[in-house]
Every structure is written in structure tokens, then in C-alpha cells.
Amino acid sequence: MPASSSTGAQGAPSQASGSTSTPNSALTDKKFIGAVEDEWILYSDDPQDYTIGPAIGFGASSIVYQATYHPKGTPGSPPQPPVPVALKVLDLDSLPPNSLALLQRETTLMSLSKHPNVLRVRGSWMDGHKLYIAMRLMNKGSAADVMRYGWPGGMEEEVVRCILRQALQGLNYLHINGFIHRDVKAANLLMDDDGTVLLGDLGVAANLAEDTYSPIGKRKSFVGTPCWMAPEVIKGQQYDSAADIWSFGITAIELTQGRPPRSREAPSKVLMRTIQEDPPTLDRDNGVHKYSRALKDIIDSCLVKDPSKRPSAEQLLQTPFFKNAKKKSYLVHKILSEFNV
């Protein structure tokens, strides 16, 4: 399957020649704060190095396949073993108008980000009107998958705390580097066999420093998923990384009860209730599991309608609640060892 045009080493599809500075070129030059050594190998941008297997996920304009990457190695060195990967294939012709720039941002941001809790693009190429993005295969799917098939009523507090802490570390990495995710939810918290949680689906992630938005550090575009959407986003007001903190609080409730608040209502009603009614909160005692006052307080602090009064991701990580979270290996024997999506 020959590629008609390569994206280059770990980058997004190139733009038309003659263009000057673009958001992606700014990303390429950016020095990421808190970047760490990547423990996983980068793959290649050569489609001949991959064998595509069965589909494992479907989106509005994309399909995710389980695939195998076959490293070429270097002359004289022993052959390297094949690597299972996830291969996201996007049909560019089916994307909404003006979405290519978002797609370029996603692949560039996910290529450059080096954090153990942020999903990274490890190879990409174009073939006709399709874009192929190779990523680490997260064998357990998402936190939403894990709940759907194993814990439909929600998970116990230590599990929730361990998942949320890893998500928060990824979120903090994005925020301190000037990005907001804009679609934080359990379906975008990807999980692997070793208990790693990665913040995925950066397709709507935004750079707060782009000079096309004023004032610096604020956005006004309407994106996200209704149940998780912050009030200021719904109302079309300027917003920043605090909108992610609201979504994080909703996600925390989602993990405790198996679904987000108001999920059984029409999207239009969800949006209206989010604006008009008091924020949702954690029911500590009437679910499948009991929860602590500390978790309720964390959630309540995130779900304050005034975004200026919400804690930052960094502040949340400094709370005793998250400082005392168990290591990722806790998830292995607690929920993952016998679980298969």
C-alpha cells in the first residue's frame, strides 16, 4: 500500500507550499515543559512496515485497527520483534469543512508531546485521501470500556483515584505548555495492561497562545461533549484551561457511577441544565460503592461555575487526595488482570 505523500518524521500532513508561519510550525519549534524520555520506540512513516489487522474502534470519520509494526532494524543487527500498534485511519473527504487544521494540530501535538500520560503519535502517512496515524496499542481500551464491560455501576474509590491522578498528570502537562484538551471524559482515558492511563484524542486540543484569539490565553469556540461541557463553553464565553477542570470533575463522577450526570437526557436539555441549575455532585452513599468526603470535596472544587475559582491541575496534584494515590500497578490486579474488552 504505497503512500501518496508522507507527513514527514512524526509530523502532521504538510500544508500548501508557500505558507508562512502556521500553528503547526510553532508547535514544532516549541520546547515542551516537563517532557520526559520516551520509553517507547517511535515507529516509521513507511506504510510498508505495517500489517493491518482487524478493526477495534469506530468514529464518525475514522476507524482504528489493530496492526503490527515490523521494525527494519539496522544492517548487521539482529532482527527486532514485531510490535502491536493501534492504527487510526481517517477519511479526509468525510471530515467537516475547515477540520484539516485541527487534524494537523492533533497529529503534531501528539507527535511532539513526551509525557507518560499523554498519547503520542509514533508514525503517520497519507495514502490518497486517507491519513494513517500509528500509536501505542492500549490493550484495555478506555476507562469507559472497562466500566461498560466490568463495572457498569462505577468503580471503587482507590481505582478512581489512581485513574484520575494519571489523567491529571497528562492534563497538567498540556496546561503548563499552553494547551487545553477540551474533551476530557472516560472514553478518552486510554488504559494498557500495566495500568498506564493515557490522555488521548487530542483532536480538539487548542493552543492558548495563538494570536488569532484575544485576549491571550482565552478561547471562544464551542467544542466538547455536552455532559462534560463547562458552563462558560456552553454560553460562548471566553474560556481557558479551567474548562478542562470542569470536565475532569464530571469525569470523576462518571467513574464513580458508570456514566456522567444527565447522560440520559437530550443534549439540548443537558446544556440548559448545566447553565441554569446547580452543578452536579458526588452521591457518596447511594451507589454501588461508598466514597470519601475528600473525593466529594475534590469534585465540588472542580464543578464551580465561576472558572476563576476552580483549582488548576497542578494544584489538584498537590492535594493529599492525589498525592496518596496508589501506583499504576494497583490497577493491574484490581481491575485489569482478568478484564478484556
Tell me what the structure shows.
- Helix content is 31%, strand content 15%.
- It is an alpha+beta fold and 341 residues long.
- The chain has two domains: 47-136, Phosphorylase Kinase, domain 1, CATH 3.30.200; 141-208 and 224-336, Transferase(Phosphotransferase), domain 1.
- The strands form three sheets. It has a six-stranded antiparallel sheet with strand order 1-5-6-4-3-2.
- Helix 4 (157-176) packs antiparallel against helix 6 and helix 6 packs antiparallel against helix 8 (293-302).
- The chain starts with a strand and ends in a 5-residue tail after the last helix.
- The relative contact order is 0.13.
- Mean pLDDT is 81; it is low at 1-27, 203-217 and 219-223.
- It holds the Pfam family Pkinase.
- Belongs to the protein kinase superfamily. STE Ser/Thr protein kinase family. STE20 subfamily.
- One of its GO terms (biological process) is protein export from nucleus.
- Keywords: ATP-binding, Kinase, Nucleotide-binding, Serine/threonine-protein kinase, Transferase.
- Residues 1-26 are annotated as: Disordered.
Summarize the structure.
It holds the Pfam family Pkinase. By secondary structure, the chain is of the alpha+beta class.
Fold topology:
Elements: E1 5-6, H1 23-29, E2 50-58, E3 62-69, E4 83-91, H2 100-112, E5 121-127, E6 130-136, H3 143-150, H4 157-176, E7 179-180, E8 189-191, E9 197-199, E10 206-207, H5 231-234, H6 242-257, H7 267-276, H8 293-302, H9 313-317, H10 320-323, H11 329-336
Antiparallel strand pairs: 1-5, 2-3, 3-4, 4-6, 5-6, 7-10, 8-9
Helix pairs in contact: 1-2, 4-6, 6-8
Pfam family, one: Pkinase
Region (Disordered): 1-26
GO cellular component, one term: serine/threonine protein kinase complex
